[in-house]
Amino acid sequence: MSNSEGKHPVKAMPVGYEKVKSIMDEETYKWHHDTHYAGYVNKRNEVEVELSKVDRGKANANYSAFRALKLEETWNGDGAVLHELYWGTIGGDGKYDQGMDVVKKITDDFGSFQAWKDDFVATAKAARGWVALCIDIYSDGKLRNFMFDVHNQGGLVGALPLMVVDVFEHAYYHKFGPDRAAYLNAFVENIDWKGVEKKYKDLKTLPAIMP
Ligand code: FE
Q1: Cα-to-centroid distance, 75 and ligand 1 (Å)
Q2: What's the gap in Å between 55 CA and the centre of ligand 1?
Q3: pLDDT exceeds 80 at position 3
Q4: What's the 40 CA to ligand 1 centre distance in angstroms?
């Protein structure tokens, strides 16, 4: 086991409650981070420690302890990372300007900013777990909205999220009840576009394929 395995930290909420109160109540702010997200980080660490000890000689696709751990490795790992990306997406004022590189790219790839937003919200209404605006690096470098139906199922290999919304019921039921559309309206108005712009600029320096 390398030194970093089993030692992922529970990262502090990067935004204060006041900045996200339009999309969650104070109890959800605490529960979602302290119990839910931390649970994924802690189990990710536990799985990594168990993986260092499990018998790989008994690996089997019908059932084996190794297979079970490999499945829960990505369930918990994605559960942790997607929540960190979600916290990183929210806490803004939903405002953006046409001069932002990411807004120009959205307009180019979706036809208009409104077309992107309509597709993002529709995808978030159709998803069971997560939706992310991604750079589809391995295909063609275009931006696309992808659904991760559960943490470790969905998405596309090589497509890196720029921003993420959590649409599992625990994210919004305590404030909005079953009205997911109201949550999504509030979410869109709470996006930190400066943060999305920074992530886009960081990620687009990665692949030579990016225009
Ligand atoms: Fe969540």
Answers
A1: 13
A2: 32
A3: no
A4: 10
Q: Which one is the CATH code of 25-89: 3.40.50.970, 1.10.287.990, 3.40.930.10, 2.60.40.10?
A: 1.10.287.990
Give CA–CA dist 51/5, Å, rounded.
10
Contact 163, 89 (CB under 8 A): yes
Predicted local confidence at residue 206, as pLDDT:
76
Alpha carbon of 168 to ligand 1 centroid (Å):
6
Closest CA to 137 of 200, 209, 211: 209
Mean per-residue pLDDT of the chain: 94
Distance between start and end Cα atoms, the chain: 39
CA atoms within 13 A of residue 152's CA, in its CB half-sphere: 13
Q: Where are the domains of the chain?
A: 25-89, 101-209
CATH number for the domain whose boundaries are 101-209: 3.55.40.20
- Taking the centre of ligand 1 as the mean of its atom positions, its distance from the CA of residue 176, in whole angstroms, is 15
Q: How far apart are the CA of 207 and the centre of ligand 1, in A? A: 30
Interval between CA 210 and ligand 1 midpoint (Å): 31
Q: pLDDT by residue (tens digit) across 41-94?
A: 999 999 999 999 999 999 999 999 999 999 999 999 999 999 999 999 999 999
Q: Are strands 159-166 and 153-154 parallel, antiparallel or unpaired?
A: unpaired
Does this chain's domain 25-89 share its CATH topology with 101-209? Answer: no
* CA–centroid distance, residue 171 to ligand 1 (Å): 5
Residue 208 pLDDT level (bands cut at 50, 70, 90): low
